[in-house]
Known about the structure:
The protein has 292 residues and is mostly beta strands. The protein has a domain at 173-292. It has one helix and 15 strands, in the order βββαββββββββββββ. It has one helix at residues 49-52; strands spanning 2-13, 17-31, 34-45, 62-65, 72-86, 92-106, 118-121, 127-141, 145-162, 165-170, 177-186, 192-201, 222-231, 235-242, 277-284. The strands form two sheets. Strands 1, 2, 3, 5, 6, 8, 9, 10, 11, 12, 13, 14 and 15 form a 13-stranded antiparallel β-sheet that branches. A hairpin with a 3-residue loop joins β13 (222-231) and β14 (235-242).
Amino acid sequence: VWTLLAGARLDHHDSHGWIFAPRLNVKHNLNEFTALRLNVGNGFRVVNLFTEDHAALTGSRQVLIAEDLRPEESWNINLNFNQVYSTRRMGYGTFDLDVFHTWFANKIVPDYEVDPNLIVYANLSGNGISRGFAFNINHTFNKQWDILTGMTFLDVYETLEEDAQLVREPQPLSPNWSGNTKVTWNSPNKNWNVNYVASITGPMNLPTYEGEFAREEVSPVFSLHHLRVQRVGEFDLFAGVKNIFNYTQDSPLIDPLNPFGSNFDTSYAYGPLQTRRFVLGFNWTLGQTEKK
């Protein structure tokens, strides 16, 4: 069975005129439990620089807008494979595999490398690419245990024109890969549930600094773990721990003892800054109808 959905959007912007954005979605059911999806479309976005990128407002780096910034524009293609499965003794679940590629005709990304005292914003001199693949498995064991796990692998870079040649430049603060897991246990009477959530983040390129303030230019791999226990009813109680193993990155501040100096900077932030936290609370639902 084939399903086709095509559409288009036409907008008029005060500064950029008419904007046409087409989109195509195709779905093919190979059988009752297997489906393929293809999505292709165009995106357009006007950047609000100072409300979206707070690094432009913090630290000692001066902001340099090198030219009139054009809107960001991209073309995206995504292919999805979805499989529903079941086993006799080990439960049932779904498996998803996504392969995606986004081509940016223009993208506004801060440049920290051209000058240690500047954040430079400009249009792409070449183009930007964000591509990769991801998979997710959502499995239920005997109606009490649920496991959701997945991984994403990314290749994000820009092609910049230098000396009449296109040079590949990795995008900073974009991890090469990441993963997440969620494990849920429900008591037989559904009155209790326990949730364990974990994430892992792969290496990413970081802003560079020179001299006495030089730091690692690639971040380490790190993971975060959280746990929550909940008593379900008309009066819900819950308790939990966030960041169980108390992982935090080193200080993101450059030259923190001299906050008004020319070297002070806050852009070296790639990981969590909050330490282990304990939470305790309740939800009280009034007038809840009894479930049958």
